[in-house]
Specification:
With about 290 residues, this protein is α/β, with parallel strands linked by helices. The protein has one domain: 3-Layer(aba) Sandwich (Rossmann fold), CATH 3.40.50. Helix content is about 45%, strand content about 10%. It is built from 13 helices and seven strands. The protein has a five-stranded parallel β-sheet, sandwiched between helices. Strand 1 and strand 2 form a beta hairpin. GO terms for molecular function: transferase activity. This is Sulfotransferase family protein. Pfam families: Sulfotransfer_3.
Length: about 290
């Protein structure tokens, strides 16, 4: 007998069709999240401690999610519900400052105007299966970016590089390991000797492979794929696609970047050795996506 759909109420509003933004590290998730976050009635969280704890537990140990499907869905749903609570202390639109104790846990003035929810936290991509179980009407926006530019940004990001410190790669306990991008015995054996650029490339390669798999598993009304390099100059078209897909009123202005978008910056930021390593690791994916 089919179970009835789970109903989640946050801030007095039923959560309908939450939107999750996915992508490899430094692939443009933040840009899309900003546009959705500023759409009327939309609250998009990112990086809430309870959500990060659940996401990284499943990302680094996917066997947990596979062994306990309903439990992983419940854990993510509860963590997201916590991150979506809007009170004077947690709402990003409230001015901050001292709050009377009697009001601290109550919905803030913005909660009543919030009708849609989503999340764009880091590495959410690895929890897509659990998110789809947690919310049977969830919509996913994934963004793809040239792996060479993504690697260049990862190499400049201390938080991204933290995962490559000795002892954090749990390749003996979890194999294959999508989070670190290690899929074969040869890759597992070689991993400790790889450069940081090659390890970053493995993470990007794994992410785009997961993204390709999603396109085969989710119907078109639940998954929208955007190309990062196609946003500049086509902000209006991209905003219209996001609006049509999510049902939110997305402004093209929020997709405009005042600074350089970083497209092609790998040519000056990666040295010849790093470029060769990235292409050696991810050439098939770079070629399939039209970057080579």
């Amino acid at each position: 007998m089919k179970q009835p759909p789970y109903i989640l109420v946050v801030n007095g509003t039923k959560v309908d069709r939450p939107v999750f933004v996915l992508g490899a590290p430094h692939s443009g998730v933040g840009l899309v999240a900003r546009a959705l976050r500023r759409a009327p009635g939309f609250h998009v969280s990112a990086g809430h401690p309870s959500v990060l704890k659940a996401v990284y537990a499943f990302a680094r140990r996917p066997s947990i999610a596979h062994a306990n499907g309903s439990g992983s869905a419940t854990l993510l749903r509860d963590a997201l519900a916590e991150s979506w609570q809007l009170t004077p202390r947690t709402c990003p639109r409230c001015p901050g400052g001292p709050v009377p104790a009697r009001l601290a846990a109550e919905p803030c003035e913005h909660a009543a105007r919030t009708t849609r929810y989503g999340d764009a936290g880091p590495d959410l991509l690895y929890s897509t299966a659990a998110l789809a179980r947690a919310f049977d009407d969830a919509a996913f926006v994934q963004i793809i970016r040239d792996g060479r530019d993504a690697v260049a940004d990862m190499l400049d990001d201390e938080q991204s590089l933290t995962w490559f410190k000795p002892g954090l790669a749990n390749l003996e306990e979890e194999f294959p390991n999508p989070f670190f991008g290690v899929e074969t015995e040869e890759e597992r054996e070689d991993y400790p000797r790889l450069s940081l650029a090659a390890k970053c490339a493995l993470r990007w390669r794994s992410a785009v492979r997961l993204s390709a798999k999603l396109r085969g598993e989710l119907p078109g009304d639940r998954l929208l794929t955007l190309r990062y390099e196609e946003v500049p100059g086509k902000e209006v078209e991209t905003a219209e696609r996001l609006s049509d897909f999510t049902g939110a009123r997305v402004s093209s202005v929020e997709l405009v970047r005042a600074d350089h978008d970083g497209t092609g910056s790998w040519r000056t930021r990666l040295d010849p050795g790093q470029r060769a390593e990235v292409q050696s690791v991810a050439r098939p994916e770079l070629s399939r996506l039209g970057y080579l």
